[in-house]
Amino acid sequence: MKSIRQEVLKIVAEQAVLDVSDIDLAASMESLGIDSLGLVEVIFAIEEQFDISVPFDSGQPANGAFDLSSIETIISGVQHLIEQKALLVDG
Fold first, then answer.
1. How far is 15 from 2, CA to CA, in rounded Å?
2. What is the CB-side half-sphere exposure of residue 82 using CA atoms within 13 A?
3. Number of separate domains in the chain
Protein backbone atom coordinates (compact mmCIF):
# COMPACT_ATOMS: atom_id res chain seq x y z
CA MET A 1 0.00 0.00 0.00
CA LYS A 2 1.31 3.43 -0.89
CA SER A 3 1.87 5.96 1.84
CA ILE A 4 -0.38 8.96 2.37
CA ARG A 5 2.51 11.19 1.32
CA GLN A 6 2.99 9.30 -1.95
CA GLU A 7 -0.72 9.39 -2.76
CA VAL A 8 -1.10 13.11 -2.04
CA LEU A 9 2.03 13.89 -4.08
CA LYS A 10 0.67 11.83 -6.96
CA ILE A 11 -2.66 13.71 -6.89
CA VAL A 12 -0.94 17.11 -6.75
CA ALA A 13 1.53 16.14 -9.48
CA GLU A 14 -1.28 15.08 -11.80
CA GLN A 15 -3.10 18.38 -11.28
CA ALA A 16 0.09 20.44 -11.70
CA VAL A 17 1.22 18.34 -14.70
CA LEU A 18 4.55 17.67 -13.01
CA ASP A 19 6.55 14.64 -12.01
CA VAL A 20 6.21 13.72 -8.34
CA SER A 21 9.99 14.20 -8.01
CA ASP A 22 9.56 17.86 -9.05
CA ILE A 23 7.31 18.71 -6.12
CA ASP A 24 8.88 20.37 -3.08
CA LEU A 25 6.97 19.70 0.15
CA ALA A 26 7.32 23.37 1.09
CA ALA A 27 5.71 24.49 -2.18
CA SER A 28 2.32 26.15 -2.22
CA MET A 29 -0.37 25.11 -4.66
CA GLU A 30 -0.04 28.50 -6.37
CA SER A 31 3.71 28.08 -6.83
CA LEU A 32 3.01 24.78 -8.58
CA GLY A 33 0.64 26.54 -10.98
CA ILE A 34 -2.54 25.13 -9.42
CA ASP A 35 -5.36 27.68 -9.51
CA SER A 36 -8.51 27.71 -7.37
CA LEU A 37 -10.36 25.28 -9.66
CA GLY A 38 -7.35 22.96 -9.62
CA LEU A 39 -7.25 23.21 -5.84
CA VAL A 40 -10.89 22.11 -5.61
CA GLU A 41 -10.09 19.18 -7.92
CA VAL A 42 -7.15 18.21 -5.70
CA ILE A 43 -9.39 18.32 -2.62
CA PHE A 44 -12.03 16.16 -4.33
CA ALA A 45 -9.38 13.66 -5.44
CA ILE A 46 -7.97 13.48 -1.90
CA GLU A 47 -11.44 12.92 -0.47
CA GLU A 48 -12.12 10.15 -2.95
CA GLN A 49 -8.71 8.49 -2.53
CA PHE A 50 -8.80 8.41 1.26
CA ASP A 51 -12.58 8.29 1.86
CA ILE A 52 -12.47 11.40 4.06
CA SER A 53 -14.22 14.75 4.07
CA VAL A 54 -11.88 17.73 3.89
CA PRO A 55 -13.22 20.86 5.64
CA PHE A 56 -12.73 23.38 2.87
CA ASP A 57 -14.30 26.72 1.96
CA SER A 58 -13.78 27.07 -1.78
CA GLY A 59 -14.76 30.74 -1.61
CA GLN A 60 -12.02 31.52 0.89
CA PRO A 61 -9.57 28.60 1.07
CA ALA A 62 -7.27 30.49 3.46
CA ASN A 63 -10.04 30.57 6.08
CA GLY A 64 -10.77 26.86 6.03
CA ALA A 65 -10.10 24.46 8.88
CA PHE A 66 -7.71 22.55 6.64
CA ASP A 67 -4.23 24.10 6.17
CA LEU A 68 -3.58 24.46 2.44
CA SER A 69 -0.46 26.62 2.76
CA SER A 70 1.97 23.95 1.51
CA ILE A 71 2.07 20.40 0.23
CA GLU A 72 3.52 19.32 3.57
CA THR A 73 0.63 20.84 5.55
CA ILE A 74 -1.87 19.22 3.20
CA ILE A 75 -0.23 15.82 3.79
CA SER A 76 -0.33 16.43 7.56
CA GLY A 77 -3.98 17.44 7.34
CA VAL A 78 -4.89 14.31 5.40
CA GLN A 79 -3.04 12.18 7.96
CA HIS A 80 -4.94 13.89 10.78
CA LEU A 81 -8.32 13.38 9.09
CA ILE A 82 -7.57 9.69 8.49
CA GLU A 83 -6.58 9.28 12.14
CA GLN A 84 -9.75 11.06 13.29
CA LYS A 85 -11.88 8.84 11.05
CA ALA A 86 -10.19 5.73 12.49
CA LEU A 87 -10.92 6.93 16.04
CA LEU A 88 -14.60 7.42 15.18
CA VAL A 89 -14.84 3.99 13.57
CA ASP A 90 -12.96 2.22 16.37
CA GLY A 91 -14.39 4.29 19.22
1. 19
2. 16
3. 1
